[in-house]
User: Fold this.
Amino acid sequence: MTWDRVLNTLGAWALALLWVLPLAYAVWTAVHPAAFEARFDLLAPLTLENFAKAWSAAPFGRYFLNTFLLVTVILAGQFLLCTLAAYAFARYRFPGRGILFGLVLLQLLIMPDILIVENYKAIHLLDLVDTIPAMALPYIASGFGIFLLRQTFLSVPKELEEAAQIEGLSSLGILLRVYVPPAIPTYLAYGLVSVSHHWNNFLWPLIVTNSVETRPVTVGLSVFSAIDSGVEWSVINAATLMTSGPLLLAFLLFQRQFVQSFMRAGIK
Amino acid sequence: MLRTRGWIEAWLLLVPGFVFLIAFTHVPALVTIWNSFFTTPRGRRPARWAGLENYETLLSDPTFWKVLKNNALYAAGTIPLSIGIALVMALWVNRQLAGRGLVRMAYFTPTVLPMIAVANIWMFFYTPGFGLIDQIGAALGLGQTNILGSADTALWGVMVVTIWKEAGFFMIFYLAALQTIPPSLVEAARIEGAGGWTIFRRITLPLLMPTTLFVSINAVVNSFRMVDHIFILTGGGPDNASSLLLFYIYEVAFRFWDTAYGATLTVVLLAFLMILAIGQFVLFDRRVHYR
Assistant:
């Protein structure tokens, strides 16, 4: 019994060490001078110079602003559009409901991520290439968001709604006063998942942006660390940590909420 | 009268969402299929009807077959392993364990990082001569490696990175499912004299089946969708040895600007996802109630 426990604990810790090793190594190189990139000396001098170098070598401030704008636009759009659609699916019975909901579910598998060729043509046609909306538009209506909110709205007791109707609330009033408040944990969960997903998105932004004014951090980082740029490894690592920094920091601070959000969003 | 009003209200609520949903998912999917029957417009020459020409090119394109094989290998290599590791992680984190919070954090952290950042971090391991793998190898008296630079190993190098990134993500779903298993079931089995392994095989594993299905489908979709790391790690090389279908689509459409052929390749990807959608529908039909 105890043996079993010791072995399991050891295994869990060994795997955990193995799992943090790459990240720990990146942190090590980022906070030490280049000379210590592969020399592990506990007394090696600490430095923030690599971060300073990275920050001044590329317009990361602008990249952060772009990413911030991008995730904000997407999140606002998703909250609005998904709430309205989820409300219709949860509360109304209407012709075409099944088919329309099927179309929503289809987007769980066939995502805009893979339709890059045609979506680029559409964005080009709208004359939006190299803008923040170009990066955001394909993701603003999310099948996943509609599905998730609908599930939550379905669990709201019918009596609450009937009471609100007697009070004379309009349909939108009922949505805002009756359905949205109990769904706030779902919004939070969905918000965290959406922000981290779009903060990290790369391929689509790479395709539709081509200037510093619109590039998000992921694309900026890939430009910065392109092999032929001749930047030192320690500086690249500092930039890498910097771009994931805000999410990583948020994750460390709100670990429990993060994990629970992903769980909540994952349970269908 | 009241009924029609309800219908109209519902449709109005759906309009904003569906405009975007259809404009950027369903329409492009259909247009992709349509465009795969035309040539790529170049300069002043507009697209012309090409019939099955693009598909003939596809069938005789060795690169297409190569990336398809790579994608199959990539899926077969990463999915079972990352799901297996995820299950082990979840089982460990779900029991009494010293420093459980830290361990869980260690497992989950890669999930939060952008794939581009993850690739940068791993690049540092793989760099020939200079990276950590070679440093350790040198200390042990082994020769230089070039994992990402040789055709035999490049894809494996990419797969390791994927597993590292995804296992912690899948762990979360298993963890959620494990917490819904009533402890009384396990206790009852214990009283009956069942050992740890029997309990796992007879109780835990079957009850986790729906989660495994859900995670598997997620993993399959990801194996088609996630190619960010390839840009940093290998650029698809050497000689397409580590290129995946979506990465090849990107190259064809945005480096060679052959959009018609890009559309044709996308049709293949769509076909796979449709098969998956139908498969999921059949498999899940009796398990998940969409109400």
User: Anything to note?
Assistant: DSSP finds 14 helices and no strands in chain A. The radius of gyration of chain A is 23 Å. Residues 59-265 of chain A form a domain with the MetI-like fold fold (CATH 1.10.3720.10). Residues 60-91 of chain A form the longest helix (32 residues).
